[in-house]
Design goal:
With about 425 residues, the chain is α/β, with parallel strands linked by helices. It is built from 17 helices and 8 strands. A 6-stranded mixed β-sheet has the order 1-4-3-2-5-6, sandwiched between helices. The mean pLDDT is about 85.
Length: about 425
């Protein structure tokens, strides 16, 4: 142990980890045994194997460490974080941007651990949001479902490209080649059927009105090579579909304790059961982590950052990059809400007219996130739609009149008002 001068510590017994794939460098800083205002410091290196990490936890406990801080390094932070969390330590995961080394200083794993420890003991870092274990399990499932859906979409695109290569124009006639009719036709192609008339006759329901177009679409040069590849692709799509179904069933089991929260979020326009589950998986149900709805919107990067210098605002109101999975589901929910005759739908249309569709999606996504915070923060809160006429009625009749006049004038009309009898 070595004494280092320090007179401004905040956390009395703290440790910091510099995490790699194979090794963890741990720095501990505690009060000096001499009783002075100096600090005692020790640095050790541990393997990332489980037994070594458990030994590191015992070593930290021997110093009476209360808080352990680590950077979010790829996925390597998860084993030490989870083990130390289970051992009862206050574990903090911090953003690497917040603890960058000062320019000009040498950089090694040991120095990085010491620097992080010094920054942490003075309270100069903030912990990132790491949900509890049940939410983490739900998050793993919902994110894997998103990845599977993306993989299914990519494989379907490969199928369409393969048919184009064989001059089979099924996608020109059918809006969804993986519908009941389209799938039956592709299975017949794999089985060896090449007669356009026979293939067209596999159409069902509304597709039967396009028999002539279908016969023309199947006049191509589909051969055994294409049949082999198409069989593999269709098999892959079927397997991914089965995996998605299995994952959704598992999500239903894991999300059962949060069924009431899912039901409340399902009431929001544009938010269905799947979206509600994904939102809960990303932000959890305990809103004490976010003191206000604005904190949640800021964390999700659905609020413009504040950048000002010399009295001038910088950055043009950009929001930055937040949780991509949460942003995806909020964007999809905003697009869905835009098609409804609700307050959110009217909000989207008003903003889209003035500032464009992209900004409208972000604005409505933020509104949805604000609603989500209030519904999760108080279990007694219920969703009540303000109505699509909210903007016209909240300011009274005269405000509605002015808005309608302004809209007509924008279209090039001169408006004269005459009161009705």
């Amino acid at each position: 142990m070595e004494d280092t001068p320090d007179d401004a510590q905040v956390v009395e017994r703290v440790a910091a980890l510099d995490i790699g794939k194979a090794e963890v460098v741990c720095c501990v800083r505690v009060p000096s045994p001499t009783g002075s205002r100096r600090r005692a410091q020790e640095v050790r290196t541990f393997s990332t194997m489980t037994r070594s990490l458990i030994g590191m936890g015992d070593w930290l406990a021997g110093f009476g460490v209360t808080r352990v801080v680590m950077e979010a390094t790829s996925d390597y932070w998860k084993p030490p974080f989870y083990l130390l969390e289970a051992a009862g330590f206050e574990t903090w995961l911090v953003n690497a941007r917040d603890v960058k080394h000062l320019p000009g200083r040498p950089k090694t794993d040991k120095l990085d651990a010491v620097w992080l420890c010094k920054v942490a003991e003075r309270g100069m870092v903030r912990p990132s949001f790491v949900p509890p274990a049940p939410i983490r399990q739900l998050r793993d499932l919902t994110r894997y479902r998103v990845d599977l859906v993306g993989e299914r979409g990519r494989e379907k695109n490969r199928v369409e490209k393969l048919l184009e290569d064989a001059q089979i124009k099924l996608s020109v006639v059918a809006s969804d080649i993986f519908g009941v009719s389209g799938r039956a036709m592709m299975d017949a192609l794999v089985a060896g059927e090449r007669d356009p008339t026979v293939l067209a006759q596999l159409a069902r329901s509304r597709m039967r009105v396009k028999l002539g177009d279908l016969q023309e679409a199947f006049v191509g040069r589909f051969n055994d090579h294409h049949a082999f590849l198409l069989a593999r692709m269709l098999s892959h799509v079927d397997q991914v579909n089965a995996d998605i179904t299995a994952v959704e069933d598992r999500i239903g089991e894991v999300v059962a304790p949060f069924a009431a929260a899912v039901a409340r979020l399902d009431e929001i326009p544009g938010v269905g059961v799947t979206a509600a589950r994904a939102i809960i998986a990303e932000i959890g149900t305990d809103m004490t982590r976010f003191p206000t709805a604005g904190h949640l919107a800021s964390w999700a990067k659905f609020a413009p950052g504040v950048k000002e210098s010399a009295g001038k605002a910088k950055g043009n109101g950009t929001t930055g990059h937040g949780n991509p999975y949460l942003a995806r589901v909020l964007g999809e929910a905003a697009v869905g809400a835009a098609r409804t005759d609700t307050f959110l739908g009217e909000r989207y249309r008003r903003i889209a007219r003035r500032r464009g569709k992209k900004k409208a999606i972000v604005a409505v996504g933020r509104s949805i996130l604000i609603i989500v915070w209030h519904l999760l923060a108080d279990e007694q809160t219920t969703f009540t739609d303000l109505g699509s006429d909210h903007y016209d009625t909240r300011g009274g009749t005269q405000r509605a009149v002015r808005n309608h006049i302004r809209g007509l004038q924008t279209l090039g009309y001169q408006v004269t008002l005459q009161p009705a009898a």
